[in-house]
Amino acid sequence: MTILVTGGAGFIGSNFVLDWLAQSDETVVNLDALTYAGNLQNLASLQGDERHRFVRGDITDRELLAQLFQTHRPRAVLHFAAESHVDRSILGPGAFIKTNVDGSFALLEAARLHWLGLEGDAKPTFRFLHISTDEVYGSLAPDAPAFNESHPYQPNSPYSASKAASDHLARAWFHTYGLPVLTTNCSNNYGPFHFPEKLIPLMIVNALAGKPLPIYGDGQQVRDWLYVKDHCSAIRTVLAGGRVGETYNVGGWNEMTNRSIVQTICALLDEMKPAAAGPYERLVTHVKDRPGHDRRYAIDARKIQRELGWRPAESFETGIRKTVRWYLDNAAWVANVQSGGYRDWVAANYEQR
Ligand code: NAD
Ligand code: TYD
Question: For residue 173, how far is its CA from the centre of ligand 1 (angstroms)?
Answer without folding.
Answer: 21
